[in-house]
Amino acid sequence: MTLKYVDEFRDGTLARTILAKLKKQCAGRAPMRFMEICGTHTVSIFRSGLRPLLPSTVELISGPGCPVCVTASEDIDKAIWFASQPDTIVATFGDLLRVPGSRTSLAQERAQGADVRMVYSAMDAVALAEENPDKEVVFIGIGFETTAPTVAAAVTMANRQGIQNFSVFSAHKVLPPAMEALLSSGDLRLDGFLCPGHVTTVIGAKAYEDVASRYRMPCVVAGFEPLDILHGLWMLVEQRLSGEARVDVQYRRGVTWEGNTAAQRLMAQVFRPANAVWRGLGPIARSGLAFRDEWARFDATQRFSVPTLSVREDPACRCGDVLRGVLAPLQCPLFRKVCTPQNPKGPCMVSSEGTCGAYFKYAYDGPDLDLEEKY
Amino acid sequence: MKETQVLLDHGSGGRATHELVTRFFAPLLSNPFLDAMNDSAVMDFLGDRLAFTTDSYVVDPVIFPGGNIGSLAVHGTVNDLAMSGARPMVLTAGFILEEGLDLSLLETIVRSMAEAAREAGVTVVAGDTKVVPKGKGDKIFITTAGVGIVPPGVSLGGQNARPGDAVLINGTIGDHGTAILCSREGLSMEGVIQSDSAPLHTLVAAILTACAHVHVLRDPTRGGVATTLNEIASQSRVGIRLFEEALPIREDVAGACEILGLDPLYMANEGKVLVVLPQEEAGKALDAMRRHPLGRHAALIGEVMADHPGRVTLRTRIGGHRIVDMLRGEPLPRIC
Ligand code: SF4
């Protein structure tokens, strides 16, 4: 099957053909559970109304692939602390603004007078630093392997231009260690991973080889259009039914085995692997990115002396369980009652890629579609 | 975290704005005209029915591809009047200028206001100017109010949608919001996305002449088509279903939104009208719109249903269904 243009990937007739194939393949088989790791997949699945169209034996579970959602409360508190420093501008992606930390959010701090700017890229933050030479500009670096190279590029550019007042708070994360952590935690029964197209264009399909072979877990890298996802699911079902476990690439128009080596080099030039704390998953070895020593002057945590912050988590928020795929948003007692996009209790509700937000925003609760399905 | 202060969100035109209005303005200033929650108030006056409306404009940047804050301030108010079927007559304009504003910029803006008013056949009959110290405003804010006359027999309102009605739009969705965003963020796509800012009263007149039973006209400005349809669905206590494949969206707008992770359904429009009317009249309305220069890409995009009152849903290309909620959360600050 070759698909060329975006419109083809949204083609209704083709979708129905694949769905029929999928149904035939699954008929009489044991139920299968696949995790889409990536928040962009989650949102695309909800936006296209795909879930209720799948055979009842194919279950989709959302994973920890939303960079805002997996950011630890402590890191949000740190971002807020930076914003409270005198003569400091905090630059961040829009999604992060409304995520509640222990006490407040960046949006609330901004309403109180903190200088918090929404930017679309780290380069915008460098430009801010250039325009405001008498201020410190701290960019809150959140994101996976797709974002980290662009932040690295911004840092090297700031360096070349001799910009003195720019730094990054690196809360970046890398995905494969989190997948392994999920599998080794043992409370999640899975039949395969739908791996993210964009991240994989950078890290290459080879990044999942360990997961596939060591945990005997089928992995398929899929694009983000509804048909990409359907096609990817079909490939996962095929692998599972034939008893295999390898890395397949559905998203051939974007992904190679080796990935984007230039981006990998750039990332490795500025950052080194470091332990990181994930919301819901806890500390995971080598799953974050810290500044290399040569670039320490761009590291906000070294540039400022950040005190130890006392972190308070809302005990009722179940984001951690949602991120591990063991709880559906509808099972969180706060969902829709107390926790809404307007008044979010956790990042999964705020982020544009968050699972709770996707359920809230897109899930159709018509009589023909049963959303109360349990994980 | 119950809000105790105004957040930027409250100006989004989406859910937060809605909550601000229902929490403070609606109860404290309540009266039958305001309670109707339409784009303009229609009142009897010496044998005529007057439509009366006001709106403020705080767009950044003040000059954007396809217009500027001056023409926008005229079009926006003319359109609010047109949505009640009125023929716009007169406007007033209030200016809040920030100390330091370039006078040549002011001239450009007022010139295009004058031109827009001439084109729309309205007269600016009163005005006001205030200057605030540097930093207490952002270049220029304009507030316009307008009065128009509603022809006899015309009765439109957000509460009139009925199950079985068709939902039409006169052209592509999300152009204005995307144009503003792209020019503000310096994102230049191939070619420049133009705002659709335009006065809609002649198009509206054409629709009303062709169709005797129009139920609702609404211009989907801030909050976009999604939010406006949600308002209609809740005012009329009906469900509205959109058809994804029928939504007219320019390719460059779709592309820009894709890159920015936005949905054209939530992007502001300044030259679009949503028309809700009985299915039987849909063909006539589409013909009338397509004959007008502002309606060449008119399309039937959805239907009104009895089930799921208050809710807008979308039938996706692949045959799934999903909710289309009001705009929520941090929007694109100040796009119109
Ligand atoms: S519904 Fe709210 S509180 Fe519950 S898991 Fe989701 S984001 Fe957290």
Automatic annotation (TrEMBL), chain A:
Q: Which domain of life is it from?
A: Bacteria
Q: Does the keyword Membrane apply?
A: no
Is-annotated flag, keyword GTP-binding? no
Please list the coiled coil stretches. none
Q: Which GO terms describe its biological process?
A: protein maturation
* Single GO MF annotation: carbon monoxide binding
**Sorted alphabetically, which InterPro entries does this protein's record hold?**
Hyd_form_HypD (IPR002780), HypD_1 (IPR042243), HypD_2_sf (IPR042244)
Q: Which UniProt keywords apply?
A: Iron, Metal-binding
Family assignment from sequence similarity? Belongs to the HypD family.
Q: What is this protein called?
A: Hydrogenase expression/formation protein HypD
**What organism does this protein naturally occur in?**
Desulfosoma caldarium
